[in-house]
Structure formats: structure tokens, C-alpha cells
Amino acid sequence: MTKVATLTDAVASIPDGSHVSLSGFAISRCAMAFAHEVIRQGIKGLTVSQCVTAMEADILVGGGGVERIISGGGSRGRFGQHHCINRGIEQGTLIAEEYSSLSMAFRFLAGALGLPFIPIRSLRGSDILKRLQEVAPSEVAMVDDPFTGDDWLVLKPVVPDVAVIQVQVADEEGNAWILGPRWTNEEQLKASKRGIIITERLVSTDMIRSEPERTVIPGFRVSHVVHLPYAAHPTAVYHAYDFDADHIKHYAQASRTPEGTREYLDRYVYGTRDHEEYLELIGGASHLDGLAADPALGY
Amino acid sequence: MTAEFEYTPLELMAAAGARELRDGEIVAVGLGLPVVVSFLAKRTHAPNITLLFELGVVDPEPVDTAVGLADPRIWYRAKILSSFVDMLGTVLHKGLVDVGFLGGLEIDAYGNLNTTLLGDPKGKYRHFTGSGGANDIASYARRTITIIRHEARKLNEAVAFVTSPGYLRGGEEREAAGLAGGPSRVITDKAIFDFDPESRRMRLVSIHPGITQEEVLANMNFQPIVPDAVPTTEPPTSEQVRLIREEIDPDGMYAG
């Protein structure tokens, strides 16, 4: 069954107040075109979850539609901090449930396995745990190991309403391949009630069947497949295109202030009707050709 | 200083870090100087160490400098590209990581690290990166090495927010919290520290060539344990400096 949809329709399937889990990691495989469309459609009250915070989460926060972020923390590496997320936390306009990378990975894994909770060695003795006990007391607990009697910190699973996963290759059913490290994308997708796949290449199911061991996203968990080249711009998609350093720096500078963020959104998000117009605005095909990945290097 | 060649403080720190790694160990690395440290050890005395990056990257051989772990440049020629559950789960959580590298906004007298916020956690503060894999690595790598700039604002009696636990407030507190392992070394651009086995307070191990003990202590907001005789840190060899400049970090982005 084909689930191929426009980005507009896929985004319109997400009601206000949903919990959306996002595929990006810092500056790689971020669902940027998706985030732009969420902002254009004015979807509000979202909870966003992600193992390591990334650019699509930051711009969604900047767009004002995010109420709560559940993550292991993160930055853009040498491109600096996520200013919109940090500003939201500092000003109290964004509720942050902050974990560590592995505690998020385990929470998604528990969600994917349908477990009631998952024990973990992380967080103990830290102020991360103390703060979680204040902002999310229902998500963490101590239990006794029934076999040894040892005490263990346990975390609740994360079960997002929808995972939005940017991939390189998918078929029209949503069976998808992720090239390169998958961070927690597989667990996020499998923990979620459904998935939206945004793919650089749409291939036949015959091609998926020819190398099925590469399939990490099961089509039967996917509700929409959006075929949209360069949907992660300005972030990198391994073996497709490199990150756009100049544009990331431009965003990094703009997002330092609420006014700069607003100007950025006015120009690149509200000022464009769709992803095609956005790509034209940032320089079109000639600019994007310059970002194409070298097949030998993958970037 | 009698060396007939020049080296930078970062090159000295990289060499000091590399000496801490033993052949055959599994090392959890973040970006920055730990990359230089690990590749330096791997190209000299420890060719069989395994390097892993939290997102699912094992033993890459990058040829271009990366801007972060999410940059495919650091994944080049990896032996494995997988996931957090695979790296931090089946290796680190299972107790197989020998050494983890950490850094941060500030570290305290007992090796607790803060990468989350500066200011008053209950009032006005500036929020930064948070944990990433740092808390996980600090919680159960067999030992951790922190590399941090030697500035008083970064070396405090207590940190504003314990993102990654060291020995908490010292003594047996770390074990009581259910944590194994712990900080083994802190390497700054002025000195190297370890931790007193009983009090778990930071202790001066060696001072870098050309630096005085007064300079070390004047740029800290707490008093570490200072033994009667503190040796000078062994400088890098000319071969180590050559490897860093010509092969490991030719752009000088990590150790420049």
C-alpha cells in the first residue's frame, strides 16, 4: 500500500499537543523541511523528544510551537549552542526534561520493546536526577532488583505519538534504510505509535527486497512517506549531501536573539510557501550541487 | 626547558593524555583534544586500543577535521557505524569501557563536572549543552580523564550543577550512590592532577615545564592536595609533536 504523501498532508496529520520524536543529531539528518512546515501550519503545544538535541528541534522551539522538550542535551558542536532551546529553558517558557544520551536511548528502547520501565546505571548521584525528580517525578523511580536485592534507578519508556525520521532511502510503504550511524532513530520509530518518513530517494519495493538486511525502518509502522530531496538542509545527510556551513552559521547568528530568530523565520519559513521555494531562496540547484556528497567519503 | 624543539600547551596535554592509555583498552572519546590524544596513543604505544564514539562509531580513520560527532568526517573508514544502544549500551553499560574522556564548563575538587548551566540553578542561569553521553561515561567507565583549561572560573570547590558525577563530596559517596569507576586524571594546560585514594580530593601530580606551583594554585578556586615534591610533567617527544602536526591534526583545529 502506498503511503506517499505531500509534506503538507503529513504535517497536517499531527494535532496540536502531540508528542513528536525527531531524527536529527546536532547537524545531521535533521527533519528541517518538516520543522519549517510545522511552523507554517502553526501547530502548537508540541512535546519534542530526541536523544541529542538538533537543529530541527531548535527551530521548532524558536517558532513557538514547543511546550516541552525531552532529550539528553546537545549542541551544534563547533557551530555553537542551540540558542532557542537554551533561551526557552532560561526564561521558563520551555519545559525541559533533561536526561543523558544513554538514558534517552534506553527510554526509547523500553518504548520499542513495550517494557513498563528500564533499569539504568546512569544519572545516579547527579543533579540531572535531582532536577528530573522535580520536573518529571513520574518518569523516574528506584526499585529493588528482585534477584539480588540491589537498588536500581528505573526510567519510564518514551512512547511518542509520531516519530519523524529523515532517511536516505525508502519505498512507498515506508520501508527505509538509514546510511551511517542511526543514533536512536530505530528505537524512536519503534517506540512511537506511528512514523512519518522523509526520504531523499524513493525506490521500488523490489529494490528494498534485494537488500532487506539494510531495512531498519519497518514500513508497517509508517503512516506517511514524503519524498523530498534536500529536506535536511542545512544539515548533513550522509552519502547524500554535506551540511551547509555558511547557512548554519547564518542561523546560529540569527537565533542568538528572539528578534533575529523572528527575522530568520520570516525570511526562510513564513516567506516561502513550501520546501521548493525554500531551496530556491537558499541558492537553488547550483548551490545545492556544491554540497553533494563525494561517494568515496560520504560527505 | 632543554628540548631542542617547540611544542604548544595543547600538544603537551595530548601527549600526557596519550600516556594514560594502555594498549588493548576500549576508550570512549568525544570530539576535540581527546581525538588527538587517542590517535596519538594508537599511532605510538597503543595500536590495539578501540575508539568508540557515543552515537555508534568505532575506530574511524578521519582524513578531514570534523565540526562535531554528527559530522560524517569523523565517521570516515569506521569499522562499525551503529547506534547509541550499541555503543553506550552494549559496551559502556555492560562495563567494558576502560577509559572515558570528559570535558566541561567547570570541574570541582572531587572531580564532579558541569556541562549544564552557569549561575544559580534555582534562579537566574545560562543553560548550555547538558549531558549528551558525558553522564553515562562518568557513571561507569572504569576510569575517566578530564581535559580542561586551567582557569579559576573552571576549577571550583563545588560545581553549580553536577551533570557528570565524580566522587560527589568525597570519601565513599560515589560508591554509596551506586557508581563504580571514577575520575583518574585531570589534565590542564598547567598541570596534571589525580585524586587522593581516601578523601578523593584532587591532588597535584605534576606541573608542566615552565609553570610554577604558584601559577597552578593561583588559578584555582580551591586548594588541591599538594605533595611535598611535585615533579615536572614529561614533555612530548619530537616524534609525538610531528605526528600531531603532520598526520593527526594538520589543520590545527584540535591541538593548534
Give a written overview of the molecule:
The complex is a heterodimer of chains A (299) and B (256). Chain A folds into 2 domains: 7-98 and 159-287, Glutaconate Coenzyme A-transferase (3-Layer(aba) Sandwich); 117-155, no CATH class. Helices cover 34% and strands 20% of the residues of chain A. Chain A has 12 helices and 12 strands. In chain A, the strands form 2 sheets. In chain A, strands 1, 2, 3, 4, 8, 9, 10, 11 and 12 form a 9-stranded mixed β-sheet that branches. Chain A has a 3-stranded antiparallel β-sheet with strand order 5-7-6. In chain A, helix 2 (32-41) packs parallel to helix 3 (55-62), helix 3 (55-62) packs across helix 4 (83-91) and helix 5 (101-113) crosses helix 7 (185-191). The mean pLDDT of chain A is 98. Chain B has 256 residues and is α/β, with parallel strands linked by helices. Chain B is built from 7 helices and 14 strands. In chain B, strand 13 (191-195) and strand 14 form a beta hairpin. In chain B, helix 1 (9-19) packs across helix 2 and helix 2 crosses helix 7 (238-248). Chain B is globular, with a radius of gyration of 18 Å. At the A-B interface, helix 4, helix 5, helix 6 and helix 7 of A face helix 3, strand 9 and helix 4 of B.
Low-pLDDT segments of chain B: none
What is the highest CATH level, the class of chain B? Alpha Beta
- Most extensive interface between two protein chains, with residue counts: A-B, 62 and 55 residues
Order of helices and strands of chain B: HEHEEEHEEEEEHEEHEEEHH
How is the main sheet of chain A built? 9 strands, mixed
Q: Which CATH-level-2 architecture of chain B? A: 3-Layer(aba) Sandwich
Average of the residue pLDDT scores of chain B: 95
Q: Beta-strand level of the residues of chain B, as a percent range?
A: 15-25%
The fold-level CATH name of chain B is Glutaconate Coenzyme A-transferase
Give the C-level CATH assignment of the largest domain in chain A: Alpha Beta
List the uncertain runs of chain A: none
C-alpha geometry of chain A: globular
Gyration radius over CA of chain A: 19 Å
